[in-house]
Model the fold of this input.
Amino acid sequence: MSVKTTSFTGSWRNKRYYYFIFVTIFTLVLPWVNIEGTHFFLLSFENLKLHLAFVEFDMQELYLMPFILMLMFLGIFGITVLGGRVFCGWTCPQTIFRVIYRDLIETKLLGLRKRIKNKQIEPDMSLMKNKFKKVIAILLWTILALIASSNLMWFFVPPEDFFQYLLNPDEHRLLFAIVLFSTLFLVYDIVKLQEDYCIYVCPYSRIQSVLYDEHTVMTIYDFHRGGKIYDEKKNKLPSSSQKEIQARTGEYAECTACESCVSICPTHIDIRKGLQLECINCLECADACTTVMGKLGKKSLITWSSDYEITEQKGKTHYWRAKIIGYIVLLVGITILTAIMGSNKEHMLLNINKENRLYSVKKTTDGIVVNNAYEFLVQNTKREDMKFYFEVIAPKGMEGKITIAKPTKPFNVVPGIKKKKIVILQTTEVLVNDTKKDSIIPIVIRAYALGHEDEIVVFRDSSFIYPKADHIKGIK
Done:
């Protein structure tokens, strides 16, 4: 009788490779895409600008950043509740960089490592040819790390400016120092630190244990079929103990003890121990087990499933549960709120500061004139020159009594430059007759762009100080 065999195809690993290629190309290309000078995401500290979804925001409009951060963290937490540490195995730059260095450069290109399937055997560095290959591998990775570091900076300095700055390095020393430091760190991290970064440095592995529940999908070993290899204290059972357990429970252990799942693991764990913080859900062990068990005509003992379905055998995994729905509702709600707030972008930014002197009073042929001086800081956030002007909205009963003494006509404001304008408001009317103290009169400044009065308009609260009556009587 022939035994049905299944050839090794590296299903999950190949899917990860394709996904890594997509993520890499997307990350490299995205900073170059711009629409009328705006990028999908750019946080420019140099120009004090935020570009989000091809809309430009001034730093004064950074109220959107907390929502972006909430979306990022809630998204990662939600993915963890649903699919375990899948972000680490499929999207994390650390993982992608390690695959590029270990699987592509060291194994495929240079042959420093013999097989991708065995990640536990390190190259014999006593051989001169291996030392030479190691140097070449580090040099190749250093070039790629420099590109990766530059790519990171393109989300803070647009690439069109970045490459112009290359011509004047003395004027942009901080920028190049950051790129150099990032490159050196990536070389140390990927070549020396390796997966120890995931195990000991990255805090995410500690967070995941709090977020997991019995329906969380993860890389899991089916001990009901394969047999128990470790006891409750994670100590490996001798073969005699395994046989005793099988005899007592009547279970047949299908695990062949080939340990292919151990050899291929990038974080050097044995998935048969159960849930471990080091597991990054890369599913390479599932591929290895698929190969071995496929030759025996059986399904893999390692799958991407949940404790509820595999360990406890209570039924199918519940993907649409309260936690997941809650995360989806939060993410959708915050996304809608962010979109609404982003659509209400102000095309004119205005700060009003009152000068230190409360007021000035002088006597003219028209009577007593009370002046209040202000400093307007105006910025045009559109991409065309505009003329701005404003009007004063006084409280009820004082309409038209507070007028603009300076400036007397609209003034031009060019895009991207903050313009300081001294403004003087005055009155010749007796607004308040208080003999004890100066009076603070609340006013509203309505500023607008000529020709766009309904579209580009902002309102700012301010105040007009009117002197006490005794002070006015004393003016000669």
Remarks:
- The two ends are 121 Å apart (CA to CA).
